[in-house]
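User: quick one, fold this
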Amino acid sequence: MLVLTRRVNEKILIGDNIVVTVLEVRGDQVRLGIDAPRDVRVFREEVVLRDQPKPD
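Assistant:
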């Protein structure tokens, strides 16, 4: 895992066409903006985990 420190309005580039921008930091919450092509699916982890079938 790559760990980075960024400030508000600083960006992280992923590949040639994904940009993650730190929009706001408030206490223990960070707001991110993600600019990616329409064919790149972006999900929050908790939503994906919630929607997965539970093992028997």
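User: anything notable?
Assistant: The two ends are 31 Å apart (CA to CA).
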